[in-house]
């Protein structure tokens, strides 16, 4: 993959998210936890698509939007106390890291 670092960081985020989501209450396993997992896989799918396409601008914009939705879902999980603060801080750092890489990818394509 052309943007292997972003993809690798996204995989690390995915692995850690699964650890954090395990602590969600049973009532949320098919709610917010499933939504977060779906959002992560949507971003991964868009990363693969952007890497394969010649014109990447729209795909990168979609990826940026989906990333922001993921960030808000994780904040909601923290606000609802589904995730301990320490795990939220680590997960949030990983989400920010991926976000910076997506932003850099977008800037590179605008040149």
CATH topology: de novo design (two linked rop proteins)
Query: Which regions are unreliable across 5 or more consecutive residues at pLDDT < 50?
Result: none
CATH architecture: Up-down Bundle
Helix content range of the residues, please?
A: over 70%
Oligomer: single chain
Run of helices and strands: HHHH
Task: Name the CATH homologous superfamily.
Answer: 23S rRNA-intervening sequence
Radius of gyration of CA atoms, rounded to a whole number: 14 Å
The mean pLDDT is: 92
What does this structure look like?
This protein has 111 residues and is mainly α. It is 79% helix and 0% strand. It is built from 4 helices and no strands. The protein has helices at residues 4-21, 32-52, 57-79, 85-110. Helix 2 runs antiparallel to helix 3 and helix 3 runs antiparallel to helix 4. The model has no long low-confidence stretch (mean pLDDT 92).
Q: Would you spell out the secondary-structure blueprint of this structure?
A:
Layout: H1 4-21, H2 32-52, H3 57-79, H4 85-110
Helix pairs in contact: 1-2, 1-4, 2-3, 3-4
Task: Tell me briefly what this model is.
The chain has 111 residues and is mainly α. Helix content is 79%, strand content 0%. The chain is built from four helices and no strands.
Please describe the structure with a list of short key phrases separated by commas or semicolons.
single chain, 111 residues, mainly alpha, de novo design (two linked rop proteins), 4 helices, elongated
């Amino acid at each position: 993959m052309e943007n292997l670092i972003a993809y690798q960081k996204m995989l690390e985020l995915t692995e850690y998210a699964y650890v954090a989501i395990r602590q969600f209450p049973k009532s949320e396993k098919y709610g917010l936890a499933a939504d977060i997992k779906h959002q992560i896989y949507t971003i991964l799918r868009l990363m693969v698509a952007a890497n394969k396409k010649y014109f990447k601008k729209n795909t990168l914009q979609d990826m940026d939007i989906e990333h922001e939705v993921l960030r808000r879902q994780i904040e909601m999980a923290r606000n609802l106390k589904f995730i301990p603060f320490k795990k939220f801080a680590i997960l949030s750092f990983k989400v920010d890291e991926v976000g910076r890489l997506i932003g850099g990818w977008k800037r590179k394509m605008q040149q």
